[in-house]
UniProtKB/TrEMBL annotation:
Keywords in alphabetical order: Transferase
Top-level taxon of the source organism: Eukaryota
Protein name: glutathione transferase
Residue ranges constituting the GST C-terminal domain according to the UniProt record: 85-208
Enzyme class of the recorded protein, top EC level: transferase
Length: 224
């Protein structure tokens, strides 16, 4: 038995959040090691555990994995969430890369000056509706079931679901022009593992606040 997956990151919503969602969807138990100081990161680096001196790092199946999307692909492939063939996989990756672009914009909002937050949130909502959500709406229309690719659950569905929650935090009602996405959201939230993960007490994190930003600064080499 390889035991629980062990996740090393800081206590804030960012890259590791994706890993948590995917492990939850796959039904894999995990524990988190929340790094608070540059010294803790330095110790991991000195022990040779961080290939690029960066986190996230995940210990799973006896391997220390870094680079978020490499980790995600491993988990998706292992738990049959990666598509049935190369054509499904490239489509999943195309959706995923788009989702990452939008998610990166959302993650930048807390780093803006507080007086610019409203403007940043509106910018995200506009980009989301005009460029990204319409793509996923159309993809869902072309499928028989409430999944993006191949009429079965893949990692793209998990991240679309998370992305919808995040975009709605930026602007409520953002799904009003997207009926398939509304249906999708309702269907995914009822999947037993996702339903469980959405319950209070789960590791799902809120948008980054000042305390999280401080934690990021503390563990970053650039601030030593
Ligand atoms: N491409 C990497 C980027 C990882 C990354 O930038 N991690 C940040 C924390 S979110 C970090 O460790 N920064 C410290 C550093 O780069 O020295 C991934 O996707 O995992």
């Amino acid at each position: 038995m390889a035991g629980k997956a062990k996740l090393y990151y800081f206590d804030g919503r960012d890259r590791m959040e994706w890993v948590c969602w995917l492990l939850a969807a796959a039904g894999v138990e995990f524990e988190e090691v929340l790094l608070e100081t540059a010294e803790e990161v330095q110790n991991l680096i000195q022990d040779g555990k961080l290939m690029y001196q960066q986190v996230p790092m995940v210990e799973i199946d006896g391997v220390k994995m870094v680079q978020t999307r490499a980790i995600l692909r491993y988990i998706a492939a292992k738990y049959n969430l990666y598509g049935k063939d190369l054509k499904e996989q490239v489509l999943i990756n195309m959706y995923m890369e788009g989702m990452k672009e939008l998610r990166d914009l959302i993650m930048l909002v807390p780093f803006a000056l507080p007086e610019d937050w409203e403007k940043s949130l509106s910018f995200v909502a506009e980009k989301a509706t005009q460029r990204f959500l319409s793509v996923y709406e159309k993809a869902l229309k072309d499928q028989r079931k409430n999944y993006l690719v191949g009429n079965q659950l893949t990692w793209a569905d998990i991240f679309l679901f998370e992305l919808i929650l995040m975009v709605e935090e930026c602007k409520s009602g953002v799904l009003s022009a997207f009926p398939k996405l509304q249906e999708f959201k309702a269907a995914i939230s009822k999947l037993p593992r996702i339903h469980k993960f959405l319950q209070p007490g789960s590791p799902i994190r809120k948008p980054m606040d000042e305390a999280n930003l401080e934690a990021v600064k503390n563990i970053s080499r650039f601030n030593n």
